[in-house]
Amino acid sequence: MLFITYRKECDLAQHYHLRGRFWIESPQGTFLGQGRVLLLERVQELGSISAAARSMKMSYRQAWGLISQMNSHSPEPLVLSSTGGQGGGGAQLTHVGKRAIQLYHEVLIDFEAFLSQRAQTLKL
Amino acid sequence: MLFITYRKECDLAQHYHLRGRFWIESPQGTFLGQGRVLLLERVQELGSISAAARSMKMSYRQAWGLISQMNSHSPEPLVLSSTGGQGGGGAQLTHVGKRAIQLYHEVLIDFEAFLSQRAQTLKL
DNA sequence: TTGGGTTATTCCTTTTTAAGCATAACGCTA
DNA sequence: TAGCGTTATGCTTAAAAAGGAATAACCCAA
User: Fold this and answer.
1) Whole-number Cα distances in Å, B122 to A28, A52, B18
2) In which band, very low, low, confident or very high, does the pLDDT at A10 lie, cut at 50, 70 and 90?
């Protein structure tokens, strides 16, 4: 008897994962991404850039740079900050900043739905 | 008369772009991504890892590392290589490697369609 | 047997990136 | 007025990633 061997189809969904990322770019570079949005959320929650950075184990330097970029790449700032006073100062989101978070999450839901749906038919 | 000023809605689609990437992960890390698939295509086209690397302005070292990873993270290799002989040796894709390219492009088409469609309703 | 071009692999250097440090200004509180 | 915690910014240092150089093995062709 003759056996014809052929490769068994490999179901990628079992052992492999389809992953992805998305971000919004301005003409000057990245405007909104996963890290930036998380940072915005922490600022909104904690009322301070430095506290937000600490909570993410990110250096204040980087956090400030990201926020500075976002503000400058937008016609209106996403974060307003004040120095001195009770607590030393702080920062809060503008309604544009809050809307940016909301917008990102709206896209994120669709994005994840797309990935998980598309992953089901991955046969290598 | 009283004017109530409100922020004009900013159409992100005009000045900003929704971008993204996707890749297939094995339990050990990235398995297939944009760069790896391009490398596979060049190997298929040129019949050599070093030629493929040159054509992408990638170092042979990195190209070899990527291919080595892909092969080891797959139950069957994607690239077969031989040393010595006419032309010094070479490499060619297995049918698993060819299928990987095809699979990636199938997902890519859907992915780009998703992004461009989703970008149309971006209002900040 | 020598040369050529490739695969395969290690080691070291360079570049890029991120983290850390230092300092000044601010404005409330005690 | 002194102190505190924050914002804001430049400069220095460390970590990580990419790049390049070097070497051995391979096998056909001349």
Assistant:
1) 18, 27, 9
2) low
